[in-house]
Amino acid sequence: MSATTMPAVLTARALLLDMDGTLVDSDAVVERIWRRWAERQGLDGDEVMRVVHGRQGHASMAVLLPGRPREENLADNARMLAEETADTDGVIEIPGAGAFLAALAGLPHALVTSADTGLATARMHAAGLALPAVRVTAESVGASKPDPEGFLKAAAELGVAPADCVVFEDSGAGIAAGRAAGMRVVGVGPRAVRHEPDVAVPDLTRVRVEAAADGTIRLHVG
């Protein structure tokens, strides 16, 4: 049985959810904007796309242009964020995301995204998804994924130990961040499978949430 269909039952006290590629399919926008950026920089578009998923923009730029000053990356990132926030053409929910979020109503969960608040709000609304009450966005952290800071902050805000959290992620950077935080990871979509999460699913239609009597969350995955 392949990793994308392997059934599993995970027990957690909180769920920490990435946005792009996990709840929201924003690949069309990301491709448009980052390939334009790659062309301006004289970089190979395919190589750029292998790097950018899951990271804050300036962190991706630091990987792709290691000699460029951080201040220039931050300024470039601010321009890119404005472009991305204004462009929601083709932004849709990952299959099952709406029902998945509805099932989490009243249960401890948080959005942990490399997007800033404006971009997260624009994309979640474009996809028709409600924003979780607890959100850790780019402004909330000093380090981008694959650093675990965002996930650890979300766990602390929810009052849940890292080992009792399950992360939902699609990218290599995000999966590495979840692991570094000491959390189990459910990979969502085709990118995730390549980075060996604890269990992987093609989309969120393959996840069922059950609230247990002892206050834990049982996830039926696969």
Helix and strand topology:
Layout: E1 8-12, E2 14-17, E3 24-25, H1 27-41, H2 45-52, H3 57-64, H4 70-86, E4 92-93, H5 97-103, E5 109-112, H6 117-126, E6 135-136, H7 149-158, E7 165-169, H8 172-180, E8 184-188, H9 190-193, E9 199-201, E10 207-211, E11 217-221
Parallel strand pairs: 2-5, 2-7, 5-6, 7-8, 8-9
Antiparallel strand pairs: 1-11, 3-4, 10-11
Helix pairs in contact: 1-2, 3-4, 4-6
Characterise this structure.
With 222 residues, the protein is α/β, with parallel strands linked by helices. The protein is 40% helix and 19% strand. It contains nine helices and eleven strands. The strands form three sheets. It has a six-stranded parallel sheet with strand order 6-5-2-7-8-9. It has a three-stranded antiparallel sheet with strand order 1-11-10, with no helix packed on it. It has a two-stranded antiparallel ribbon with strand order 3-4. Helix 1 packs across helix 2, helix 3 packs across helix 4 and helix 4 runs parallel beside helix 6.
